[in-house]
Amino acid sequence: MLKKKSGGPVAYESQITDFAKRYAKYIREELDILSPNIIVCGGNTVFKIAKELIYPELNFSEKNSWTHQNQKKQITIINSFHPTAHKPNEHMYDWMMESLINNI
User: Fold this and answer.
1) What is the pLDDT of residue 31?
2) Mean of per-residue pLDDT scores for the chain
């Protein structure tokens, strides 16, 4: 949903945040239509935006270092690695999934 401007290899936190501030209302409307149970955020910036700008009225409790959950709306937000992160799949997937499975 929150995407860098096309054409460049890097998305700066300030650019992503500015975009989110401008379009938070529309992003929220789209998410309300989709009604997701799980939202996977590609990095800390997007994770913070989801909690503070997209769902500011909801309280999310920390289930573990990767996962925050809102019981009322049954929404889980996962703070995952960005898909292009320079980390082995073992780190990007196994660490997160093991943490999630161990805390269910």
Assistant:
1) 96
2) 83
Q: Name the β-bridge partners of 38.
A: 76
Instruction: Tell me the pLDDT tens digit for each residue of 44-79.
Output: 899 999 999 999 999 999 988 888 999 999 999 988
CA-CA distance, 83 to 87, in Å (whole number)? 9
Interior CA angle at 12 toward 70 and 84, to 5°?
75
**Tokens matching residue 91:** 């780190």
Q: Which of 82, 10, 84, 6 is nearest to 44 (CA)?
A: 82
3-state secondary structure of 69: strand
Contact call for residues 46 and 2 (beta carbons, < 8 A): yes
Residue 27, both tokens: 């992003």
Task: Show the tokens assigned to 74.
Answer: 């049954």
